[in-house]
Amino acid sequence: MNQRGFIFDFDGVVADTTEAHYVAWGRLCAENGWAFDRSLGDQLRGLTRRQCLRLILGGTLDLPEATIQAYLDRKNDYFLERANQMTEADVLPGVLPLMQQMCSAGYKIALGSASHNARHMAHLLGIAPYLDAISDPYTVVNGKPAPDTFLWAAGALGVNPKRCVVFEDASAGVQAALAGGFHVVGLGDPALVGNAHLVLPHLQHATLSQFEPFFASNS
Ligand SMILES: [Mg+2]
Residues with catalytic annotation? Predict the structure, then answer.
């Protein structure tokens, strides 16, 4: 296990699909006469589709499973209608140059995402060629804050978590990475990701050399 690696959360780290999710949920709510506004939309960030629906419906999902699934599918259709228009230009600043540096230097790279669309979006955004593995809800049962998403990715890369850095923009994701024994770089608001080993506002202008000290103590 001499490999060293990096795991990127997808949403908010590689690309920002917040608005596409917001619009999709808003459309589903409008169709069904459910209350929805920006404040509720903000609370849905980082949650699974099912958790989002439960929150929108006031905290319970007292519906037949087929009905729930139909709502979730329709929301995803609306999301993809919008997300499918995204291109490489929608990859957040700094991510592609960083992935290129990592690949050239022989690091392994994975996505560790709670999104069922992670694989699809990776191809759409042109980052798939840089990825050695994609961990998503199809690969693990327990999502973040459980460490499973990242542990599966590390296993797929053949790296020990101690020799792997995770990039996360959500509190549950930072918690998951810490629980798995990874080095964690939190991106964004320190109020959300302050528990990470290093906090940066974003990856714009980030360079590989900034993260290499993480590997120094575990050689
Ligand atoms: Mg995220």
Answer: 9, 11
Q: What mean pLDDT comes out for the span 172-177?
A: 95
Report CA(66)–ligand 1 centroid distance (Å). 29
* Ligand 1 center–CA 64 separation, angstroms: 30
198 CA from centroid of ligand 1 (Å): 16
What six digits make up the tokens of 122? 């990776």
Q: Indicate the helix (H) or strand (E) that contains 135.
A: strand 133-135
Q: How far is CA 85 from CA 7, 15, 17, 43, 192, in A?
A: 25, 13, 11, 25, 29
- 168 C-alpha to ligand 1 centroid (Å): 6
CB 113: neighbour CB atoms within 10 A?
28
Architecture of domain 18-83: Orthogonal Bundle (1.10)
Res 47 pLDDT > 60? yes
Alpha carbons 199 and 132: distance in angstroms, whole number: 25
Give the distance (Å) from ligand 1 centre to CA of residue 86: 17
Task: Quickly state the pLDDT bin for 217 (edges 50, 70, 90).
Answer: low
Give the three-class secondary structure for 199. Answer: strand
Q: Please give the full DSSP string across 63-121, using - where no structure is assigned.
A: S-HHHHHHHHHHHHHHHHHHHTT--GGGBPTTHHHHHHHHHHTT-EEEEE-S-TTHHHH
* Domains of the chain, residue spans: 5-15+88-216, 18-83
Q: ω before 64 within 30° of 0 (cis)?
A: no
Dist CA 200 CA 35 (whole Å)? 35
Which class would CATH give 5-15+88-216?
Answer: alpha beta
